[in-house]
Write a structure and sequence with these properties.
This protein is of the alpha/beta class. It is 25% helix and 20% strand.
Length: 118
């Protein structure tokens, strides 16, 4: 899976995602830090990448309707520390069928995963 990490997702997760065979790029690497969400979104879509973010601006499943994009994982974790984010993403990518998330709108909390498909 081709993945784009939004700037609000720790780069500490990159080694784990790469271990699972994913191609990971960050918005920071591309000079998109501090840029509008529309720029992040455009970059992810033009590169056919699944976006992982904590940004609630991407939370509207009507605006980001499943099957109209390459996929979004919205992390809704209580703890925003890097260790917790890495642990939860590692758990998700090792236990869930994340390959089937392409084109989906996915919301993950500490204990639940909701996948909206088109």
């Amino acid at each position: 899976m081709k993945i784009k990490l939004d700037e609000n997702v720790t780069t500490g997760v990159i080694p784990a995602l790469k271990k699972f065979g994913h191609d990971v790029e960050t918005s920071s690497e591309e000079g998109l830090t501090g840029k509008p969400d529309s720029d992040i979104w455009s970059a992810a879509q033009s590169e056919a990448r699944f976006l992982i973010t904590q940004d609630m601006d991407f939370a509207d499943a009507r605006k980001f309707a499943p099957a109209t994009h390459h996929g979004i994982l919205l992390l809704r974790l209580r703890s925003l520390n890097q260790t917790g984010i890495v642990a939860r993403l590692t758990e998700l990518f090792s236990s869930e069928d994340t390959e089937s998330w392409g084109g989906c709108f996915v919301v993950a909390t500490e204990h639940k995963v909701r996948v909206l498909r088109g």
